[in-house]
Every structure is written in structure tokens, then in C-alpha cells.
Specification:
The chain is α+β, with helices and mostly antiparallel strands. The chain has helices spanning about 25-45, 50-70; strands spanning about 10, 15, 20, 75, 80. Helix 1 runs antiparallel to helix 2 (about 50-70).
Length: about 80
Amino acid sequence: MSDENDGAWFVAKRHGYGAGLPIAWQGWVVLAAMIALSTVLALLLAKTLSPLLFTPVVLAANLPLILLARARTRGGWKWRNGRDE
């Protein structure tokens, strides 16, 4: 049962854990922001930070966007094995 006016920006993955593709323009903006932020950080920090520090810095910078995607995913984030619920 999916309500078109539930305020969701993403659809849940059918297999695995997390959000799938965006279903609203706001979701596309969040996805584009995550890609842009990761790209900018990669270009600016890849040569100055060690590889062990680079990944946590990029993850920490994207954390607010990840949490927003989690909050706006229809059906929430949980493990799914592809079967209809």
C-alpha cells in the first residue's frame, strides 16, 4: 500500500538495505547534492588526506544528507529480500 501524498522523496530498495532511486524532485536534489559534495571533497582533499582519513571525512560530510534520505524513504530502511511484503 503506497500513498502518493505521503511526503516520500525516495522509494525503498527491493533488495538489500536503504533507499532506491528518488521519486520526487526533492530526492533528486538530495542525490545531486551528495554527488556534488563528494566530488568537490574528492578533488580538494584526495591529495592532502591519507586514504584512511579521506573516506570518514566524505562520509561525515554527507551524513546529514544520508539521514534526510533515510527519513524521507517510503517504507523506511530495513533489510528486504525482494519478496512482496
